[in-house]
Amino acid sequence: MNFPMSWAECSLIEDDKVFGTFLNYAASSWQRHSKISDPKSPEVVELMNRLFDTNGPIWARWKIWLDANDNSRKAGHSEIIGVSASPVYYAALLGLNDTVKFLIQNRKHPIDQIGDRGQTGLLVACEKGYLDVVKTLIKYGANVTTETIDGWTPINIASQSGHSEVVKLLLRENVTGVIIPNRAGWMPITFASQMGHSEVVRLLIATGADINTTNNLENGHRLSPLNLASTYGHTEVVKLLLDSDADVNMPDEFGWTPANSASLNGHADIMKLLIAAEADINTTNKDGWSPRSIALVNGQLEQVRLLLENNADVNTSDDHRWTPVNVASYSGHAEIVKLLIARGADINASNDAGWTPINTASHMGHIEVIELLTMAGADITIPNRGGWTPVSSASAMGHDKIVRLLIDVGADVNVPDIKGWSAVHVASARNHLEVVKLLLKHNADISIPDKNGQSPVTSASANGHLEVLKLLLERKADINSKDHRGSTPLHLASEGGSVDVVKLLLQYSERNGVDVQDVIGRTPVFLAAARGHEKVLRLLLQSNASPHIHDHYHMTPLCTAIRNGHEEAVRVLLPLTKITNDSEDDLGSKVVRWAFKSGNNAIIDLVRQWAQEMDIGFCQSTLDVGWIRIRFDLSSRWCDVCTGTIPTGSSHYSCKTCFDFDICAKCDLSGAKCLNSSHEWEHMPGRS
């Protein structure tokens, strides 16, 4: 290392490190070897002193190497760019006590100079726990209350690192250092408690440290030493603090007490200590969570048992009326549910949303919990606020085994929710085939529509659930049933674009069912064209569906396909449609104009060619110059008048009476409305 040529021939830093060289090993390990050999050897001392000679040929290069390769930097210590530490700092960093003495006595280097990490030699020696170096630095006048720019003092750093002998020495030098916090309000005892350094905590308490001090973290926790020790499971520290009368119920900024924290992290031994110290086990944090409810969510059986044995209220609820048995049922902790039932828990208590324990367990799929609750006599008929009973909840989530269990104990499968959906309806809509089979086997009524007129068969068709639909049709589901918009299963399947479902429905449909119109006058062909489902469109036309039927607004399937830029649908419909200059809807927009408005060059070319063959004038209207084209989006709302996309977050209007009837801002300006002009409209403002 002391040969300059070794450094000259080697790249000092490669991505902040020197890789794969003997020099790298020598630079990082020499001090270790010197300590193992004879550190008092004159030859070794001479070599070390020569290395720390700031005027020598090696110092600057080795210092750069050490800075680049030292991974011991403390998180939270800010850097001071452009400030260079003295050799005393580096000797202290490596624990070279004799070198520290030499540099101070012989070279007269400053003892308290702060380097680019904001640390002095004393600070780094305290961090590393080099007691002899700390003694030497203090002997020669090092400032024991020096701080980094983040407010870390020697005793703070030593306390966090758990160096009890260093802490003891610092306390002898300056007792007032105990009460100096860093910038975040962390005291030495706060650090030591968090890290579980019981001997350091004992020393600090004996010197008068404030055991109820709190930090002032930016997130506002304001944690006390006892809360931190309880959080991290440091039993011995908790004992020390409690023996010194630490406030056992002191909450942090969010209402978390030591008992809350111990419960959250599953520290049963600490919970016993806190209870023995008269901790309030029923207190809640700002979210309404008590130690008991936290243990319930986490499934900590022994902690729940401990809390109940110490008079925790088995039926008390949080701010949202979740009782212990409701929480445990939701989380699927069967053993805890069994314990709570044995302790007299109210198994039919509901939370703010009306969910009872058995309903939440049914929704979450916890069959063992449901077995316990039904054996204890839980009421399976109580609905939540949405009208869902346990069998509806289980059906919605596809839990067929739970549905079977509930049916076996007498569940009514035909109870509707507040929207009129029964268990078979929601299972059909969500494609839970096994649940649908089970419900049909137990006489589920598939003919009852919901409040919008939709039945299980329309929901299955709308969502493209082929196997469920087959099952419903085998059970004689009404293929011609209509919802409040007059939509049949074929309408909804055509709009949804499911080729297989449309194919199946066509097998069951009569000829007049193919061209049936909804309340706006739209056929399955129209809806397939509007949404750009070219394969469905071809399938319908092959079944002799008419491409010419216009809707209430005098729009044809071709017109809506052009408006929405569906090139393939236009290619299918254009040869089947006779175009004249009078082909227009109530908005006064002709097919040619909408071809330009679509902004789709391929569609414009198709319409231009066809218009020439039909001897129709083809030119862009001055009214259409600057037209703002809206790209079709299958996932967005669409205007029920012009069929164009209503971009997510844009302004539009919704009829307060009609079922799901929206119009875009342009159609509103043109005066277009729903079928009943007396209906009131609600403006849905866009998001800026």
From TrEMBL:
| Ubl conjugation is among the record's keywords | no
Cite the PROSITE patterns for this sequence: ANK_REP_REGION, ANK_REPEAT
ANK repeat start-end pairs: 117-149, 150-175, 184-216, 221-253, 254-286, 287-319, 320-352, 353-385, 386-418, 419-451, 452-484, 485-507, 520-552
Q: Which superkingdom, per the lineage?
A: Eukaryota
UniProt xrefs under Pfam families: Ank (PF00023), Ank_2 (PF12796), Ank_4 (PF13637), Ank_5 (PF13857)
Q: Does the keyword Ligase apply?
A: no
- InterPro entries according to UniProt: Ankyrin-KH/SAM_domain, Ankyrin_rpt, Ankyrin_rpt-contain_sf, Znf_ZZ_sf
- Source organism of this protein record: Penicillium argentinense
Gene3D superfamilies cross-referenced by the UniProt entry: 3.30.60.90, Ankyrin repeat-containing domain
Q: Record's SUPFAM superfamilies?
A: Ankyrin repeat, RING/U-box
Name used for this protein in its record:
Ankyrin repeat domain-containing protein 52
Q: Which GO terms describe its molecular function?
A: zinc ion binding
> What does the UniProt keyword field contain?
ANK repeat, Metal-binding, Repeat, Zinc, Zinc-finger
